[in-house]
Amino acid sequence: MTISETLMHVAAVFFDIVFVIFVTYIVFVIGLRVYWNFKSKRMKGKELPVLEGEFARLKKGKGVIYFYAPNCRPCKMVEPVIKKLSKEFKKVHFVRVNVAENPEMARKFGILATPAVIVTKDGKMEDVLLGPVTEGTLRSKL
Fold first, then answer.
1. Is this structure's pTM higher than 0.90?
2. What range defines the domain where residue 51 resides?
3. Catalytic one among 65, 69, 72, 128?
4. Catalytic: 97?
């Protein structure tokens, strides 16, 4: 049994299209990660844009600002870590920001994706962690 040339040509075109889509996806994901790393490095050391309300506690000492969305699956994985560390580190001020209810706050901080964790010290951004964060990583930053 032989496969016709037309069928072989269609299969080759199909696999070429699948390959291009796959490579485009990989380049997009890697590009997004590179952009997030670049953006987080630029944010380090800057003053907090908002120091009123519950953010006023972040003027002195260590603090953590946790940006989340209620329908975000990675946020649901990070949530127990934040709760556990907030109970464990009593001297660190934790502030949670729901970006669905408060999008202008996320815009002020330059947050493009959730979950995002900003570690602060004396009113300045010390570290910016974009994406899901493990307990060990966040613990080492505190």
1. no
2. 44-141
3. 72
4. no
